[in-house]
Design goal:
Blueprint lengths: L1 H17 L3 H8 L5 E6 L2 E5 L5 E6 L2 E5 L7 H11 L4 E5 L5 H4 L2 H6 L3 E5 H7 L3 E3 L4 E3 L10 E3 L2 E6 L2 E8 L7 E6 L4 E9 L14 H14 L5 E6 L5 H23 L4 H7 L3 H7 L5 H13 L2
Parallel strand pairs: 4-5, 5-6, 6-9, 13-14
Antiparallel strand pairs: 1-2, 2-3, 3-4, 7-8, 10-11, 11-12, 12-13
Length: about 300
């Protein structure tokens, strides 16, 4: 299990390199196999490279949440067909980052209706720069863009159930949404919750540490002890996993904020290792040092 998630996190890191070395990254993606995890009746989580994909199936066809990479679409479609042969009718993007939307184009061309927050559409229609990783994400193809957008929330009635899509502002970025299936009691969080590893908070595009903590609180208000939680990255989780994530975020935030108030430099804060007691459990994926740097940079602006 640990080896599998280390591989998944390797591809999370590689997704940033994709923009710089697409040919080399495509070769790595050719080796990826899609794993199907059953979440609830007619609900599955697909694990491959990048953000987890939610599959909500039924008599009307399939609703996907997030799309990973176009190089994996045939494998993703095969995994979906193995659990439901119906058409992929809807695709919801939880945010606009590469590892959640780069499979949009072939799905859009095949007829899937793409749904996302209005800010995801705005981000995808213009070049975006990631200063943390020193690369630029080009505008998406027209076929990859959401055709249905919303500002606060959206309700989708599909397969005999109700899906609530809820905007959470200024958390992981400025465009993140939660997807809740009341019928299945399943929530997909996108990158508002990582069940393993440290989260990447896109502070250059509206994300914030306080927003991530507030998002965790909002998730906890909506779900119950029996809710299955599909995270943006990491294994299938639950309410306890979200609580642990929130506690980690609050603890690290408070430790770094205290040192900033004391006038400590970034180097001094890094040397103090404010994440040390969490590193063993979250020591895959985004390096602890990078997470600390992001938190320090964000809190220093306040």
């Amino acid at each position: 299990m640990r080896i599998r998630w280390q591989k998944e996190w390797l591809f999370l890191a590689l997704f940033f390199l994709w923009a710089i070395h697409p040919i080399a990254f495509a070769q790595d993606l050719s080796k990826v196999q899609i794993e199907t995890v059953k979440v609830a009746e007619d609900v599955y989580m697909l694990v491959g490279a990048g953000g987890n994909i939610g599959v909500f199936a039924g008599e009307d066809g399939v609703l996907l949440v997030d799309s990973q990479f176009s190089e994996l679409i045939e494998k993703i479609k095969a995994a979906v067909a193995a659990v439901n042969p119906g058409p992929i009718r809807f695709l919801i993007n939880t945010n606009w980052h590469n590892d959640h939307v780069y499979g949009n184009e072939p799905l859009g061309k095949a007829g899937a209706v793409i749904i996302a927050h209005e800010n995801t559409w705005k981000r995808m229609t213009a070049e975006q720069t990631y200063p943390e990783f020193q690369f630029k994400q080009p505008p998406a193809a027209v076929e990859a863009l959401p055709v249905v957008t919303f500002l606060d929330s959206l309700t989708l009635h599909f397969n005999g159930g109700t899906f609530q899509v809820i905007y959470i502002e200024n958390a992981h970025s400025d465009a993140d949404v939660l997807v809740l299936s009341r019928k299945a009691n399943v929530m997909q969080t996108g990158d508002l919750f990582f069940s393993s590893g440290y989260p990447f908070i896109d502070i250059s595009h509206g994300g914030s540490v306080s927003g991530m903590i507030a998002a965790a609180s909002q998730i906890l208000e909506v779900i119950d002890e029996n809710t299955k939680v599909i995270p943006g990255h990491g294994p299938l989780s639950n309410r306890a996993g979200v609580e642990q994530f929130k506690n980690m975020m609050v603890t690290v935030r408070d430790r770094i904020a205290k040192q900033i108030k004391e006038g400590k430099t970034l180097g001094e804060v890094l040397a103090s290792k404010p994440t040390a007691d969490f590193d063993k459990a979250r020591g895959v994926g985004l390096p602890a040092e990078m997470f600390v740097k992001i938190v320090y940079t964000d809190l220093s602006k306040q």
